[in-house]
Design brief:
single chain, Jelly Rolls, seven-stranded antiparallel sheet, four-stranded antiparallel sheet, 5 helices, 11 strands
Amino acid sequence: MLTTDQLDFYRENGYVLARGLLTPDEAALYRRECHDLAERLSHHEDMDATWGAARAAVAEAKETKILHCHNVQFYSAAFTRLLVNERLMDAASEIIGSPNVQLHHTKMFIKPPEKGSPFPMHQDAPYFPHDNHSMIAVILHFDDAPIEKGCVRVVPGSHKLGILEHSSEGGWHLPFSEYPISSAVPCEAKAGDALFFSYLTIHGSGINTSQEARTTLLIQMRDPEDPPTKKVHESRGQGMMLRGVDPLSLPRGVA
């Protein structure tokens, strides 16, 4: 799925944007699924996932919001099928360096128009550290994500720094003075593009100031032979095999 140049770029920079991994029709279908899900859930719960740190760090973020939902595959079968998409799994397997790909969790994000919340710069690793750092994320874009929509921004090569110390006030984040959102490299994307990055890569995103929502799905995946350093951030979808087998699994009753 990925070229040698793309894999080399990922190893050097800790991220790679795979253009057109999904077709425009596929992206449009999943965009509808996301917004339909948000509409259903909004009648029952508060879906705003804005970090307190975001409101503290960015003056314009005081009144912003972002809609989110964990483990979307339990709400719509369309997302279950997406998780095992052959193109997606080909790329994930190549980046992880294993024929076996295991799910950690999924998370939908919808940044509303004109007020979509930013995310301060951070690594994902402090949330769920793993011994061998095989964990990767992919952000699937279901509509265009230019800078004005608050696209993801990254710090190239930061995956080589290991796990950095984060502040836990208002969400895990790095010091605002050292890692301002505006200084990171924007990863502008089109509907259907997939942004892969290591859970060690420093990333964040700006405010959506456009007239259209930014709709994405984040999928965290790992090599099943890479054990969690701590038993944290567990969820009911965790451990599902998306590609290959789990070499560590045993039949029920076998120790």
